[in-house]
Amino acid sequence: MNVYVPILILGGIAAAFAVFSVLVASLVGPKRYNRAKLDAYECGIEPMSQPGVGQRFPVKYYLTAMLFIIFDIEIVFLYPWAVHFDALGVFGFAAMAVFVFNVSVAYAYEWRRGGLSWD
């Protein structure tokens, strides 16, 4: 149990800092609210006047999210593989080749749909 004490102490310090930061910001921060500050903001897309009406989001929104997921999943799997590359042998290399091929297909789809062209 003594091994976990520093981790618990660090977690307590982090939680105390988070609570302290929120309290101080609410007490010291500016209180000038206007309509623009109270309006919802969603990733650069103008908020809808009536939620649930069935308005469509631009495809660019989903392509950007898909691009993030592609690179995020790629890094999550490639980093541990690179660290233990020598211990995995040929099977590890073949498995990663299949994975990189699948990621390349998703990346090519994203590129073809225009997800990498920033207007």
Summarize the entry for a quick read:
This protein has helices spanning 5-28, 35-38, 59-83, 85-112. By secondary structure, it is mainly alpha-helical.
Q: What are the key terms here?
A:
single chain, 119 residues, mainly alpha, 4 helices
Explained architecture:
The protein contains 4 helices and no strands. Helix 3 (59-83) packs antiparallel against helix 4. It has 119 residues and is an all-alpha fold. The model has no long low-confidence stretch (mean pLDDT 83). It has helices spanning 5-28, 35-38, 59-83, 85-112. It starts with a helix and ends in a 7-residue tail after the last helix.
Outline the fold blueprint.
Elements: H1 5-28, H2 35-38, H3 59-83, H4 85-112
The separation of the N and C termini measures 55 Å
The residue ranges in which pLDDT falls below 50 over 5 or more consecutive positions are none
Helical fraction equals 55-70%
User: What is the gyration radius calculated from CA atoms?
Assistant: 23 Å
Q: Tell me how many strands there are.
A: 0
Following the backbone from N to C, one meets helices and strands in this order, namely HHHH
Number of helices: 4
The chain-level mean pLDDT equals 83
Q: What is the 3D form? A: flat
Structural class: mainly alpha
